[in-house]
Every structure is written in structure tokens, then in C-alpha cells.
């Protein structure tokens, strides 16, 4: 039978102290009450598949454990309960397709990534790696791995290998991977040699891909230049064809066509005396055009 979490809660203020109108009553959950909420959250998650309520229950218990821990509580018990609450909360967020919020949600209870429990960090790395977003864990996992207090934990070696395989290498952070392998005692000599060989192969692939990219870029530039030259040659042929066709027309027909075009565009009266100077200038201009075209061809 589950225990009622409310029976294990104690008010922060004294029983006889008055509350102001803007004050709210806050309760502190004991480890037993938090454990009861953990069991309730697990039931919502696994049995009832009520992921939203499971997350809400984890948040109720986790907030109390984070902010209102009492000195006489067993430290190990409260940390273990909070870690388990985070595990259930991570699973609930993932089930609701809110996995992007996982790392920020967890850090609100631990403040800094260096304080994350190994189990929570492992679950976060695996989740983001599965969703093909390992970069979201780069900063947090790096801070945890580099923290001296974590390097003495029994889980450190497994997490260092996980960080290397699931975060650094997929992201192409080869320098960081090499620094981790060479400078950390978590890797055996055999593991170190294997990882360094993988890093060397990855660097060669990067150089090869970079070289291929430069070749493709150069080839694209050459293709664009050839297309541009072809276009210029085509325009030149079209221009020569138009000029040849215009020159081959008889002079009188060309003059008549130009005159009709002017009538349509300018809309002046050719019988009017004021139009005579314009017609003379038009004929003179037409002669100049023909002479210029003939002089360029011969």
C-alpha cells in the first residue's frame, strides 16, 4: 500500500505564526514522502501511460528535494530519490516527444552539469544520440568529464567512453577526442591505441572530403564559365544575323518601314508643314545608320 505523501510533509512556518495575504504555505517533503511520489510517478508512467501526470509528479517531488532539503535527512537517500525522479521525468518527456527539453529540465534540479548523477548523464547522452542531436550534450558532458570530483567515480570510465563514441566522434571533434584519450587515465593502453587509430582515419577522411569539395567547386566554376562563353557566342550570332537581315533589305523598303513605324508611334500628320523638318532629320539619321553599318562590315 502506498503511503500518503501529505502525511510526511511538514510546514516551513510555525503552527502559530500568522501568514500575510501575499504569502503561501510551502511544505517540505521528507525522503519517505518523496519516495512515495516517485512510486506514484512510476505508476503513471508504466501502468497508466499518463506521461503528463508522471512528469508533474516528478516535478512536485524534485522541486521540494532541491530547494528545501533538511540537515537531518539522509543525504544518500535524498540524492538517490532525486536521481530516480529525474530518470522517470526524462522518460516521460521522451514519451511526449519533448526530448529537446530534457537537459534543461534536469539542470533545473542540479544547477550545474558537473553535479549530474552518472545515471542521469548517461541517459541524456543516449537519448540525444538516438535523436541524432549529440551536439546538445557537448557542453554538459564535457563539463562533467573534466570535473576532477567526477574522475574518481566508478562510472567515470564508462561515461568517458560513451562521451567519446556518442558525442565527440560523431560531431567530428577530433582534437577534443584525442586530448581526452591521451590525458585521461580512464582508457587502457589498448583502448587508447584503438581510438587514436580511429581518429587518424577520421582525419584522413576529412582531408579527402575537403579536397573533393575544392575539386567540385573548381569544376563548377569552369562549367559556369563555359556556359557564359556559349551564351555570349549565341548572342553574337543572333546579333550578326539581325544586322545581316537588316542590311539586306532594300533602302526604300527600310525607309518606308521606318516611316510607318514613326507614324504609328509618334502619331504626327505627314501633310502638316511642321512635320517636314522632322521627316528630313529622320531620313538623314537613317542614312547615317546605314553608312555606319556598312562601314563596320566592309
UniProtKB/TrEMBL annotation:
It holds the Pfam family Pex26. One of its GO terms (biological process) is protein import into peroxisome membrane. Residues 1-21 are annotated as: Disordered. It comes from Myotis davidii (David's myotis). One of its GO terms (molecular function) is ATPase binding. This is Peroxisome assembly protein 26. The lineage of its organism: Eukaryota, Metazoa, Chordata, Craniata, Vertebrata. One of its GO terms (cellular component) is peroxisomal membrane.
